[in-house]
C-alpha cells in the first residue's frame, strides 16, 4: 500500500489536493482511500468536529485530543487492508501543532515514532494572509480558522517539521501545486 500524507495549516488546500490525487490514481485503476481528519463517520471525529465549531480553550483542547483519537482509529481500520492500493491521510502529524506549545513538540516526536510515516509526506504551505482570504469565502469557520491561530500554528509547525516532509507552496494556481506533488510521486 502506498501511504500519502497531506498536512498543512487551515485553508492550505489539503482536501483539494487529496481529491486530485484520488482522481489521478482512480484513472490508473488503483483502489484509493482518503481519510480526512476529523472524519464524521465515528465518535471521535464527530466530537472533534463539534468542538471545532465552538469557541474557547476547552473546545480547542477537546478538538485536538479527539482529532488524535480519530487519527489512531483511521490507522486501525485501514492499516491491514491489503485491497487498498493507495491510502491518503489528510491532517495527520501536524495536528500536534494545535496543542499548547509545551505539548506540541513532544507530541509530534511521539506520534512520529508511533505512527507510520512515508516518503510521500506533503506539508502544504500557504501564507496566513492568503489562508484568511480563502477562509472568508467559507460559510462556516472553525475555532482555529483566524489569522492569529494560523500564524501561531504555522510557526509551531516550522519549529517541529523535519527533513522527511516535502514542503509545497499552495499560494499559486491549484494545477501548479498538483503538478509538483505528482512529479514527486512519480519519481519512484
Keywords for this entry:
7 helices; 188 residues; Rossmann fold; 5 strands; 5-stranded parallel sheet; globular; alpha/beta
Task: Give a description of the structure.
The protein is an alpha/beta fold. It is built from 7 helices and 5 strands, in the order βαβααβαβααβα. It has helices at about 15-25, 45-50, 55-80, 100-115, 130-135, 145-160, 175-185; strands spanning about 1-10, 30-35, 85-90, 120-125, 165-170. α1 (about 15-25) crosses α7 (about 175-185), α2 packs antiparallel against α3 and α5 packs across α6. The longest helix has 22 residues, at about 55-80. The relative contact order is 0.21.
Could you give the topology of this structure?
Elements: E1 2-8, H1 14-27, E2 32-36, H2 43-52, H3 57-78, E3 86-90, H4 101-114, E4 121-125, H5 128-135, H6 147-160, E5 165-169, H7 174-185
Parallel strand pairs: 1-3, 1-4, 2-3, 4-5
Helix pairs in contact: 1-7, 2-3, 5-6
Task: Provide a concise account of the structure shown.
It contains 7 helices and 5 strands, in the order βαβααβαβααβα.
Counting DSSP E segments of at least 2 residues, the number of strands comes to 5
Question: Tell me, what's the shape?
Answer: globular
The average pLDDT score comes to: 92
Instruction: Note the beta-strand portion.
Output: 5-15%
CATH class: Alpha Beta
Strand order in space, largest sheet: 2-3-1-4-5
Order of helices and strands: EHEHHEHEHHEH
Low-confidence stretches at least 5 residues in length (pLDDT < 50)? none
